[in-house]
Amino acid sequence: TMPVTSFAFWVVCIQDAEEEEVRQQEVRLKELHDARDALYSKLRTLDTQLEENKSGKIGASGGTRTHIPADTEVNCQWAVNHTAKCVDLVVSTNNDTVVSMVAVFADQVFDGESLLIRAETPESRLNIPIVTDKAVGANLFLKIFVGQRNASVYHMFEQGFKLPKFSMFVPDEKRPEPQGHVSFGAPTDMQRMQLWLSTSFNISINSPSTTSALTLPFKSIRDKLALTVVAKPSESPGVVDVKFAIDDMAVAASLVQDLSQFLGVKELHSTASFPEEMQKLQSILVQVEEFNSARVRLSAEMADVSNVAKGIIVRAEDLRLLGNMEGARDSYVELHARNQELLIEHSKRTSNHQSLLGALKEVNKYIQKASQLRVGPVSKKIIAACRQCIQSNDTAKLADIMMQTR
């Protein structure tokens, strides 16, 4: 049989375990009651806010509404800002909610790749100026903060929007007709051509046609540069004759490259005519010739002065050995003067060399722009032919090579 003391010990242990279990259940029950009360309180608050949302009134406690209607939508569109010479990204809502702040993220558009605009007085519409120094397209990522008027809490909408590459060009019937142009046959149809125009410019073509020719006049709101886009079905099947009339070769090249990339073209031949650009190039080529002539002349003059200086050094040393110190001194004085003359000539030669390099860089820019008027192997041929002309000093053919594919 179990001793009495052992039995009593086990009874006490069982009682302690039961009491501990009861205490744990009571603590757990209290936690559940507290959680229930918190949920009831949150539910009552949500019901109150819902009623306030439906009625459009602010609560009696003086707080502000934090909820917005469930059907709230954020819309984005482009608008021309002639005053600021840019385009505005217009962000708006479809109801009485307001746009408090918009953060825009994009590569190659903003310094730091982001822009933050906050409304001083939030309204249902917020204009964001987009200023670019050159033709650049980008996919904008927007974080839009929307809420009720006088709200302290705002809801964030995330949305993507496309910045067309040539958004700075707006339709304008009164612009002057450009003298320069580039023409080529694009392997596509009119519908694809119209689709490219809709995605790369701030325009929409309501009724695309497969046979009708297009003539669209534009003007840049940034620098008033005129552009005319002409597209018409070619006599060759599956080809559209395209002409970009514009006086800026760089923009024309950008148009050609963007259209080629859109169409997936691997090789494109074109002919061009840019009278103003070629006149500027001719002026630069004249400068290059002058700088080259000056370089040869300065080199010859420096060689002459250098030979004279060498002769003075030999004479001064002979006079010193003969003990004619006065004659040696005079020779060294003359040598000093010749040395100063050499330094001046060297400075002239260095300045001329820098000017020559600057002019050659400008010529190279024209070669690059001419090559970008084409796509594929023909572009490389243009570069090689132009550089061959420069090396052989046959610059008279340079303009013809740049403007036509040979």
Q: How is this structure best described in words?
A:
Helices cover 48% and strands 23% of the residues. It has helices spanning 4-55, 190-200, 249-263, 275-321, 325-371, 377-391, 398-403, and strands spanning 74-81, 86-93, 98-105, 114-123, 125-130, 138-147, 155-163, 169-171, 181-186, 214-220, 226-233, 240-246, 271-273. The protein has a 6-stranded antiparallel β-sheet, covered by helices on one side. The protein has a 4-stranded antiparallel β-sheet with strand order 4-3-6-7, with no helix packed on it.
Number of helices: 7
Structural class: alpha+beta
For the CA atoms, what is the radius of gyration? 40 Å
Order of helices and strands: HEEEEEEEEEHEEEHEHHHH
Give the tally of β-strands: 13
- The span between the termini is 119 Å
Major β-sheet strand ordering: 8-10-11-12-9-13
Biggest sheet record: 6 strands, antiparallel
Mean pLDDT across all amino acids: 83
Helix content: 40-55%
* Overall 3D shape: flat
Low-confidence stretches: 58-63
Write the layout of secondary structure elements.
Layout: H1 4-55, E1 74-81, E2 86-93, E3 98-105, E4 114-123, E5 125-130, E6 138-147, E7 155-163, E8 169-171, E9 181-186, H2 190-200, E10 214-220, E11 226-233, E12 240-246, H3 249-263, E13 271-273, H4 275-321, H5 325-371, H6 377-391, H7 398-403
Antiparallel strand pairs: 1-2, 2-5, 3-4, 3-6, 6-7, 8-10, 9-12, 9-13, 10-11, 11-12
Helix pairs in contact: 2-3, 4-5, 5-6
